[in-house]
Amino acid sequence: MNRLLLTGFEPFLGHRHNPTESIVREMDEEVVGGYEIIGRVLPVDYKHAAERLLTYVEECKPSAIIMLGLAADRTKITPERIAINVNDSVEDNNGNAPEDEPIVPGGPAAYFSTLPIKRMTDALLENGIPAEISNTAGTYLCNNVMYSVLHVLEQNNIDTPAGFVHVPPTFEMTLHHSAHTGFPFHSIRDSIRIMINTIAEAKV
Ligand code: PCA
Asked: Where are the domains of the chain?
């Protein structure tokens, strides 16, 4: 059976949870849209995240790759359009805080997601889930792993669809922060299934 590598991240920057970690743990070995899901958690660490992810890609030889991350200030599911060649952020979980650093020295400025992000967004909206395409994945770990994977796939002429999706916080995470309301956890998880089904249909 074709495999789909689904990655999430551990908690970071004072967030006690990262819903993407729970989602990939729960969905590991689940079959969705004809794919066996391989769910893996990545460290929020510039030195190890991309390296770990690329090891998982080598090991599982996936037919599609979806990387997930938390965007604590977003209120929609946001498939990312583009990853840029820069690390520039506050600290990761090991105290690294790069400034204006290329991810791949001399590499292209950016890579576009190769997932069907329009169709994924439309499918989410049709299912009543707030969603929109995001035009920036930031300059932290999420952008870093998205760029790194797309770079390696491109360099090796591998046409595996790959991309990143940021998810909003859960209800529980926003209980004590009144700025906005999060999503029920099960809605975030359902949205991942909907996007995977869309990718499966797009391949036919
Ligand atoms: N979100 C962060 C890193 C880990 C995560 O889940 C980001 O948006 O870069």
From this structure: 2-203
Q: How far is the CA of 204 from the centre of ligand 1 (A)?
A: 32
Q: For strands 82-84 and 110-112, give the pairing.
A: antiparallel
- Is 166 designated active site? yes
Please count the helices (runs of H) and the strands (runs of E) in the chain.
6, 8
Task: Record the tokens describing residue 148, joined without a space.
Answer: 């790194």
Q: Is 162 in the pocket of ligand 1 (CB under 6 A)?
A: no
Ligand 1 lined by 70 (C-beta under 6 Å): yes
The reply to whether 80 belongs to the active site is yes
Q: Is 144 left (phi over 0), alpha (psi -120 to 50) or beta?
A: alpha
pLDDT tens digits, 50-102:
999 999 999 999 999 999 999 999 999 999 999 999 999 999 999 999 999 99
Instruction: Kindly report the CATH class assigned to 2-203.
Output: alpha beta
> Sign of the C-alpha dihedral, residues 138, 41, 49, 112?
negative
The confidence score (pLDDT) of residue 174 equals 86
Mutate to test the pocket of ligand 1, among 166, 173, 192 (most ligand atoms within 8 A of CB): 166
Low-confidence stretches of the chain (pLDDT beneath 70): 177-179, 204
Cα distance between residue 38 and residue 143, in whole Å = 21
- Cα–ligand 1 centroid distance for 143 (angstroms): 8
CB of 41 closer than 8 Å to CB of 125:
no
